[in-house]
Amino acid sequence: VIESDDWGSIRMSSRRAFDRLANHGVDLHTGDSLRYNLYDTLASREDMEALFNVLRGIRDRNGQNPVFTALCLVANPDFEKIQEAGFGEYYYESLVRTHERYYPNQNVFQLWKQGMERNLFKPQFHGREHLNVQAWMRALNRGDRDTRLAFEEGIWGFNNKHVSGLSFQAAFDLEHLSDLTAHMGILKDGLRLFEELFGYKASFFVPPNGILHESLYPGLSELGINYLYSSKLHPVPVEPGQFTTRLNYLGKKTKVGQRFITRNAFFEPSTGLPGCVVKCLNEIETAFRFRRPAIISSHRVNYIGVLDESNRARGLDQLKELLESVVRRWPEVEFMSTSELGNLMESE
Ligand SMILES: [Zn+2]
User: Rounded to the nearest whole angstrom, what is the distance from the C-alpha of residue 170 to the centroid of ligand 1?
Assistant: First the structure.
C-alpha cells in the first residue's frame, strides 16, 4: 500500500513567491519544511502524466499496477474573497477551481479521474483544507506581518509557530478548545465536497499533520470514516498546546469501531538523502517478515516538477527503482489501496 499525502493543496505558489518571502525573512526552512517550500505545489498535467507512466509500467502477479492512495485536500482558501471581506470572513474554493487558476486549459482534474478509472490513483480524505482556518483567520485579522506577507503570495505554509503557537498546516490542532465545534463542521462539509467531487464517500481519513482531537472520532464514524491514520506512538491533542500519547497499532479499534492504519515504511526521495530505495526496501522486508502488509508513506512533494524539474525526475526515477525491486524480490506481492486493505482486514 502506498499512501501519499497532500494532493490538491497549495503549498508554495511559485518560485518568485518563495524568493520574495525569503527576502522578507519569513521562515521557510526550519525542521523538514525546506523541501516542501522549495518543491511542493499543485501537481500539473505533466506531473500527473509522468507519475501515472511510472505506475503503469509495473504490475503485480494479478496484473494490478501500483496504486497511490492519494490523501486529498478538497479545497483551498479563496484569497480574493477573503481580502475583499477585509479578513473578516473566510471563503474557500474547491480543488478543481484551484487547479483551473494555476493551470488553465490543462484539465488536470480530468486526468485525476482517468487515474482513478485505471486504478492508479485512489483519493481518500486528508481534510477540507490543509489549513487551520480559525488560527489563520485570527492572525490575518490582527494583521500579523508574516501571515499577511504569505497571504499576498497566496500561501500559508511557512513556519508560523511563533505567530500562533501551532502550525497553520495542522487543520485540527486547537488554538482554543471551543474551535472543536468549527472543526466538526469543516469535516462534515469537507466530506460532502469529497463525495461531490469523486463520486463516492471517503472511508479513510489522515488528519493534517496527524493532529485530531478524539472527541471527533464518533462524528467521523457517522460520516463514513472507518479507517483513521495513526502513528504507533501517536500524539493526541487534549487542550490547546497539550498532547497525550496513545499506543495505536495496525487494526486497533477506536471506541466507535474505526480501525487505525499505521505506516511502516517511508519513501521520501525529495529529502535528497542517499539510500532512500534501500532503506524503504528494508522496511518492506521487515513488514513481510512479521507477516504484515507494507504501508509506505510517500508525500506528494516527491513527485512535483513545477517548481524544480529535477525534483520530479529524482522522485520518479527512485520510485521506479523501488517498485521494480519490489516485484523482483517478492513476485507474490499484491498492490492495493488503503480502503482495499481495510476491507480485507474486516473480512478476516
Ligand atoms: Zn499533509
Answer: 8
User: To which residue does cell 489549513 refer?
Assistant: 131
Q: How far is CA 340 from CA 119, 285, 343, in A?
A: 12, 21, 5
HSE-CB for 163 with a 13 A CA cutoff: 27
CA of 245 to the centre of ligand 1 (A): 20
Task: Find cell 517550500 and name the residue.
Answer: 37
**Could you report the per-residue pLDDT of 144-184, keeping only the tens digit for each?**
999 999 999 999 999 998 888 999 999 999 999 999 999 99
Q: How far apart are the first and last CA of the chain?
A: 18
- What's the gap in Å between 126 CA and the centre of ligand 1? 7
Å from CA of 25 to ligand 1 middle: 24
C-alpha cell at 132: 487551520
Quote the ligand 1 centre to 35 CA distance (angstroms).
14
Taking the centre of ligand 1 as the mean of its atom positions, its distance from the CA of residue 310, in whole angstroms, is 22
Burial annotation 8-44 (CB, 10 A radius, 16+ → b, else e)? bbbbbbeeebbeebeeeebbbeeeebebbbbbbbbbb
Residues 6+ apart with CB under 8 A from 111: 45, 48, 49, 52
**Are the C-beta atoms of residues 319 and 65 closer than 8 Å to each other?**
no
Residue 329 has pLDDT above 80, yes or no: yes
Structure confidence by residue, pLDDT tens digits, 301-311: 999 999 999 99
The model's pTM is 0.97
How far is the centre of ligand 1, averaged over its atoms, from the C-alpha of 63 (Å)? 30
From ligand 1's centre to the CA of 255, what distance in Å? 25
Distance in Å, CA 61 to ligand 1 centroid: 32
**How far does the centroid of ligand 1 lie from the alpha carbon of residue 287, in Å?**
24
